[in-house]
Specification:
The complex is a heterodimer of chains A (297) and B (276). Chain A is mainly alpha-helical. Chain A has two domains: 43 residues, no CATH class; 227 residues, MetI-like fold, CATH 1.10.3720.10. Chain A is built from 13 helices and four strands. The longest helix of chain A has 34 residues. In chain B, helix 3 runs parallel beside helix 6, helix 4 packs across helix 6 and helix 6 crosses helix 8. Classes of the chains: A mainly alpha (297), B mainly alpha (276). Chains A and B meet through helix 1, helix 3, helix 4, helix 5 and helix 7 of A and helix 1, helix 3, helix 4, helix 5 and helix 6 of B.
């Protein structure tokens, strides 16, 4: 600890260095400790606690909240969980599928054009989700074309809005995740080595084979970022399902929000939050292990 | 660059336009209806810019204009304050992380900084609610839901993003220039001022801009931690849309969109000017 070391061209001792380093990180780390790490611990503890009828916590260990999630009497909750996972998977795969052609389309243009189209992707990304979801609510209203078309096709009753419905929630979710998929995929597509693609074409590979053998492996880093950036928010979303769905279209996010708000069941909300963390981190790490490491952002 | 021929190319174009359509058709509908004369509802009654003018009306007389002004101020105060605090703390954290910590400590620091980038925002909000519930018992009226709790919450998730950006820049800069400065007998402070800081500045500015954008974009964490007097723009739009579709909300949303688009254009101009 006290032997002299050279650090960034400066002769010093390790202990002095660490003392200085501590001064740098002290502020940030104590902030995160007080407002993030310790409360996470509290969340964990509270998920095993009881509450009385007014929502006040009682110091008594119980597995009640977890039983409520997984127990036999939890039909509706289990359905909400499965729905959340399915919808998140749909949103992720739909936005990645759309993001590939969009990435190719953007990368095709000249420098100015590329900036223009990329900016068109980034503007929604920097616009609040509430406003974007609100705009879907407007577009799917009975008075506008999409609802009229759907009514004409017999999908909905004439004069009704398309929301609240799962179609509306799914549309809103895909539109919300799309920019998160396009930006990292575009970065990968822009750096593609086209000679490999041409080589595959010269060897008479079919279009699908070209994509899977020459393009997909090269865009894997971008793809894994895209999947994580779309899947995690889609799992926990509650704005979209709240505004375009409603009471009958709850996802796990709505369930958690309800426990911390009008439901006044903080232990149950805490247990659900833990479950959501495990589900998303599990999904992400599973994906990371199969894909490559996530380096670009 | 050859991205295939004939039908393949046409197919990507169609799919790409479908994607852009998903992003923009709803927003264009909002922009269009913001010029409707009707106060609520979606029946087109005529073109007017009335709602834009009303947003700027005298706050003394118009209740709505007063609300909007208050909400806009809240949003900017929240974004500004949280950006400043998180940029300072996040930059210091990134600078501190390159000290020769034992590997276990540096791994711990890295995973702490990674949490907010991967954790779902609703669990993040739940954790913050827990924090304020506990802290309220320790220090009484400091942590009542309101602007203070919102700023604290936003700082907590922004720090990590600032640190990630500044850190990657620090890694890219490497130690050689600092070593050169030290060899030339620069004092640590002088070396920091004249070497590290100028090299790091773009990353710090980038981190701050990201923090500000994240703050403006956040709804969930604000929703959990706000109080009755600290309504920000997203919360205001959310609360108003529950009471039905109002044309002035379209006008606000359109203005916001134009603001975002304009700031992206300006940023691009600024960076291009730098390059020249």
């Amino acid at each position: 600890m006290t032997e002299p070391t050279v650090w960034y061209g400066q002769l010093t001792t390790r202990r002095r260095l660490l003392a200085r380093g501590f001064l740098f990180i002290a502020g940030g780390i104590s902030w995160l400790a007080v407002f993030l790490l310790l409360p996470s611990l509290a969340l964990f503890v509270v998920s095993f606690m009881k509450r009385d009828a007014d929502g006040v916590l009682i110091w008594e260990l119980t597995l009640e909240s977890f039983a409520r999630i997984f127990g036999s009497a939890s039909g509706e909750n289990a359905r909400i969980l499965i729905r959340s996972i399915v919808l998140a998977l749909i949103a992720t795969s739909a936005s990645v599928t759309l993001a590939y052609p969009m990435g190719f389309f953007i990368a095709r243009g000249s420098r100015r054009r590329r900036f223009f189209w990329l900016a068109l992707v980034i503007v929604p990304l920097c616009t609040n989700l509430v406003i974007r979801t609100f705009s879907w609510k407007l577009l799917l209203s009975a008075q506008l074309m999409p609802a009229k078309l759907a009514a004409w096709l017999g999908w909905i009753d004439p004069g009704r809005d398309i929301y609240p419905s799962w179609t509306a929630v799914a549309l809103g979710l895909v539109a919300a995740s799309l920019p998160f998929a396009v930006v990292p995929l575009y970065t990968s597509i822009d750096r593609l080595d086209w000679s490999l693609v041409e080589a595959a074409q010269d060897l008479y590979a079919s279009r699908l084979r070209v994509f899977f053998a020459a393009i997909l492996p090269q865009t894997l880093p971008g793809l894994s970022v895209a999947v994580i950036l779309t899947f995690v928010p889609a799992m926990s979303v509650f704005v979209v399902s709240d505004m375009l769905g409603g009471a009958k279209h709850w996802l796990i996010g709505n369930l958690i929000q309800h426990q911390f708000g009008p439901g006044r069941n903080i232990p149950y909300g805490a247990a659900l939050s833990l479950l959501l963390i495990i589900l998303t981190l599990g999904g992400v790490s599973l994906y990371r292990r199969n894909g490559r490491s996530v380096e670009i952002l | 660059m050859s991205s295939g021929r004939g039908p393949w190319r046409a197919l990507t174009t169609v799919a790409a336009f479908f994607g852009f359509g998903l992003l923009y058709v709803p927003l264009l509908a909002v922009a269009m209806y913001s010029f409707n004369t009707a106060e609520r509802g979606l029946i087109w009654t005529g073109f007017s810019v009335r709602w834009y003018i009303e947003l700027l009306a005298d706050p003394e007389t118009s209740r709505r204009a007063r609300e909007i002004r208050e909400v806009a101020v809240n949003t900017l105060v929240l974004g500004g304050a949280s950006t400043v605090i998180s940029t300072v703390l996040g930059t210091l954290l990134a600078l501190g992380m390159r000290f020769p910590w034992p590997s276990s400590v540096s791994r711990l620091l890295e995973s702490i900084v990674d949490i907010p980038a991967v954790a779902p925002d609703i669990t993040f909000a739940a954790v913050l609610v827990m924090a304020f519930n506990v802290l309220r018992r320790v220090v009484d009226h400091w942590f009542e839901p309101g602007m203070t709790t919102m700023i604290i919450s936003h700082v907590t998730f922004e720090i990590a993003f600032v640190t990630l950006i500044v850190r990657s820049r620090l890694v890219a800069i490497g130690p050689t220039l600092s070593e050169a400065a030290m060899d030339l007998y620069a004092s640590p402070w002088r070396h920091f001022r004249r070497v590290t800081l100028p090299l790091l500045w773009p990353a710090i500015v980038g981190g701050a801009m990201l923090a500000f954008t994240l703050s403006l974009n956040d709804f969930v964490i604000s929703f959990f931690t706000s109080g009755p007097r600290s309504v920000t723009l997203p919360l205001y739009v959310y609360q108003s849309q529950m009471r039905g579709v109002r044309t002035d909300l379209f006008a606000i949303s359109t203005l916001l969109l134009i603001g975002v688009a304009a700031s992206i254009m300006i940023l691009e101009r600024l960076t291009r000017w730098r390059h020249n």
